[in-house]
Amino acid sequence: MKRIAIVMGSDSDLPIAERAAEVLRKLAVPFAVRVMSAHRTPEAVAAFSRGAREAGFGAVIAIAGKAAHLAGFIAAQTRLPVIGVPVRSADLGGLDALLATVQMPSGVPVATVAIDGGANAAWLAARILAVADEGLAAALDKEAASMAEGVERKDRTLQEGSGEAR
């Protein structure tokens, strides 16, 4: 199975990366977590990105705030799918990172999830890999059924305890 790379622009993004890692662990998807900055270590990011496919990665999750150039920088260096996770900031609430992440030029796509959406980035990365991995597709189906069951259970509990006319 291909691995997922989770790349953070700063170690302050670790809580968001951990949400992604939690999902990937649940699905038994192998992953690696790195801290690399598009601005402070551009050579390292470029080398990592160019070699990501050969290193066994099938997708990259890039987590960054403020100027948030990490996802686009990675997407410019690899043909693997890149999923950007904009990070909330005190300055603009993450809107700056969101806009920087979604505004990629034609031919350099970056899929973008919600501000601080590490978990959804992992779900999306897993879906991308599941196109060619039946075992992962089955694990995703199982998780989707479990989520649906949880919602139905909560609805039954609410309906049974409310006393409202149905």
Structure summarized in a few sentences:
By secondary structure, this protein is an alpha/beta fold.
Structure in words:
It is a single chain. This protein is of the alpha/beta class and 166 residues long. 49% of the residues lie in helices and 17% in strands. The longest helix has 29 residues, at 134-162. It is globular and about 60 Å long.
Low-pLDDT sequence parts: none
3D shape: globular
Oligomer: single chain
Number of helices: 6
Q: Whole-number average pLDDT?
A: 96
The span between the termini is 48 Å
| Cα-based radius of gyration, to the nearest Å | 18 Å
What is the N-to-C succession of helices and strands? EHEHEHEHEHH
**Biggest sheet overview:** 5 strands, parallel
SS class: alpha/beta
User: How much of the polypeptide forms β-strand, as a percent range?
Assistant: 15-25%
Counting DSSP E segments of at least 2 residues, the number of strands comes to 5
Helix proportion range: 40-55%
Biggest sheet strand order reads 2-1-3-4-5
